[in-house]
Specification:
5-stranded antiparallel β-sheet; Dna Topoisomerase Vi A Subunit, Chain: A, domain 2; alpha+beta; binds zinc ion; flat
Length: 611
């Protein structure tokens, strides 16, 4: 054990590690008012953000699972580190040299920083080996053959594991790493005679980094002509305390900022595909490391996309077009339901992967692939239909029986009529026939799908005064945009009815409002018909559309939205203990007071009108 870190140093590190930066490495945060930020909680599964960070105080708190604390507590809990490891990692992050109490540095124990250091040293070793004469030539040829220049290889830290039993072992033990450390890091393994040998030999090596950019393991590819190597084509670091394949995505350290910014992630299949995509300008590409895309990966990506009900990101899978890819797409029908984000599939016509594509068609071909993505639902249904001869009635009925349950499985009920229409076109069948097949398949199996569908669109009471108010504001915005000046001030939660909220988002997407432009940008049928409806429906004022009237309906809508938030904050306050959670309590209470005042102001403005 190393000595204890001095208290002053712990305090310094705590004070100088900005909690929103550290949290921001893992969770996409957005402003939550009152100097707070919020995002999707990394400690429990949720769809709308209840994980709050108060940068000025250096604290976080999740109102969903009640996890909270300072920056050290956050990292400790998230990365399963000891207190000392956490402080060491934060110190490293801000470039601060720690001092230890007691008798100076003693024998270092196995901790995360030692394992990362060993992996980093190994990566450097492999990288240098790639430049050497001799068998490394095969590795360099592989890269050139895939269209990667020397600079590209350097950017991604590609290396070569020499064709020797213990070259890395010797190198790292000479640097002071123990056998136990190297074995724990997965860099060496026990040979048949009880001695230690290198895990990777005569292979091309990709360092795998975690989301914060630390090297935690490697992916290694067998090179042509190596008949001695009986192992698989790709070999990865086995599970270690820092290499958890279910939580790693190759390229994520480079892509995470772009993923958050573009609200898009492109899932490719291998290390060379990630390289090709990034070099071609698709900077949101990542790949799994020797495992299928799973729930943990979905959670990590959702946090970066801030994929909640209000905001939508795009998840684009590049499957190859063969049977395996189609199977994967069908499986993803279930996975997709965990993603609120829109899931798309990008498949090259000739079944090429991004790496092949870049070689044959250049960077543009890779960008094209992503641009020509199709919704996962469409891809999967067309894959099923392709298995039937739809020129015959038997083939059409067979395909329909397979496809109908898929439509029923679509979680977003408003999309189902759309796919009923599409499938009827693809199969050349009547819409009614497809529609009733979908209904039948739903009543057979998944009853909950149906009830979900009914509640979302049809059974909403549009005579509800709040919904009428929301509708009125939208009408003003569409019919008299020059008078709708308080529009930009509307609260995020101003529209409670889904299609209205969607329409608001479409309006906000558009630079200026032209009805045709809006219709072009809108796929959802319910929202499309809303656009035309609200453009023609008369505004409900008696005489002229006065400024006074507009001011008052906007103010009333804002008042309602604020009231909604006040209810939420009050329930937050009830859950907080003013003594134990003093900081959060005070912050929350301050927000409440501010919001109450703002609501009173809106109420004043709204007085005297019909709503
Ligand atoms: Zn939580």
């Amino acid at each position: 054990m190393a000595g204890r870190i001095r208290d002053e140093d712990v305090a310094y590190v705590r004070e100088h590690s900005h909690i929103d930066d550290v949290v921001g490495d893992f969770v996409q945060l957005k402003g939550a008012g009152g100097g707070q930020k919020k995002g999707l909680c990394p400690f429990h599964d949720e769809k709308s953000p209840s994980f709050h960070v108060t940068p000025s105080k250096g604290y976080f708190h999740c109102f969903g699972c009640q996890t909270g604390g300072d920056v050290i507590a956050f990292l400790m809990k998230l990365e399963h580190l000891t207190f000392t490891e956490t402080v060491e990692r934060l110190a490293e992050r801000i470039g601060y040299q720690l001092t230890y109490d007691s008798s100076g540095p003693s024998t270092p124990g196995i901790n995360r920083s030692r394992l990362v250091a060993a992996n980093t040293a190994a990566a450097k070793f492999y990288q240098e080996e790639l430049g050497k004469p001799g068998p490394a030539q095969l590795g360099r040829e592989f890269l050139t053959g895939r269209g990667f220049s020397r600079e590209a290889a350097e950017t991604f830290g590609v290396g070569y594991a020499p064709d020797e039993w213990d070259a890395l072992y010797k190198h790292l033990t000479a640097l002071g790493y123990s056998e136990v450390e190297l074995n724990t890091a997965g860099l060496i393994k026990e040979g048949s005679r009880g001695n230690f040998i290198d895990r990777f030999r005569n292979r091309l090596i990709w360092p795998v980094k975690d989301i914060s950019g630390d090297v935690v393991g490697f992916g290694a590819r067998k090179l042509a002509g190596d008949d001695k190597d009986q192992g698989p084509k790709y070999l990865n670091t086995s599970e270690t305390p820092i290499y958890k394949k279910s939580q790693l995505l190759y390229g994520l350290d480079m892509a995470k900022k772009e993923i958050a910014k573009k609200r898009q992630v492109v899932i490719v299949e291998g290390y060379t595909d990630v390289m090709a995509a990034h070099l071609a300008g698709v900077t949101t590409a990542v790949a799994t490391c020797g495992t299928a895309f799973g729930d943990d990966h979905i959670r990590i990506i959702r946090r970066l996309l801030m994929d909640d009900d209000a905001f939508r990101g795009e998840v684009i899978f590049t499957f190859d077009g063969d049977a395996a890819g189609q199977k994967a797409a069908l499986r993803a029908f279930d996975d997709d339901q965990k993603f609120v984000a829109q899931t798309f599939v990008a498949v090259a016509a000739n079944g090429m992967d991004p790496c092949d594509l870049r070689q044959s068609g250049g960077d543009e071909a890779v960008r094209d692939l992503v641009a020509r993505r199709v919704p996962l639902f469409e891809f999967a249904m067309k894959s099923v239909i392709a298995g039937y001869d739809i020129k015959t009635p038997e083939g059409r009925v067979g395909a329909l029986n397979q496809v109908a349950p898929l439509i029923g499985k679509i979680k977003d009920a408003s999309l189902r009529p759309e796919y009923v229409r599409s499938v009827s076109a693809w199969l050349g069948m009547e819409i009614d026939i497809v529609s009733s097949a979908v209904k039948k398949s739903g009543s057979r199996g998944t009853a909950h799908n149906q009830s979900q569908g009914e509640s979302s669109a049809q059974s909403v009471n549009l005579k509800d005064p709040i919904l009428m108010l929301e509708r009125e504001v939208l009408k003003v915005k569409l019919q008299a945009p020059e008078l709708a000046y308080p529009w930009a001030d509307l609260e995020m939660n101003a529209f409670s009815y889904g299609p209205y909220a969607t329409l608001r988002a479409r309006i906000d997407d558009a630079p200026d409002i032209s009805i045709n432009d809006l219709l072009e940008r809108t796929e959802d049928d319910v929202v499309r018909s809303l656009i035309t409806e609200l453009t023609v429906e008369p505004i409900r004022t008696d005489g002229e559309i006065s400024e006074r009237y507009i001011q008052s309906i906007f103010a009333r809508l804002r008042e309602v939205a604020m009231s909604r938030e006040i209810v939420e904050i009050k329930s937050d306050l009830q859950r907080l203990n003013p003594v134990e959670n003093e900081v959060e309590y005070t912050a929350t209470f301050t927000r409440l007071v501010g919001l109450e005042a703002a609501r009173r102001a809106q109420k004043e403005l709204a007085i005297g009108e019909a709503f």
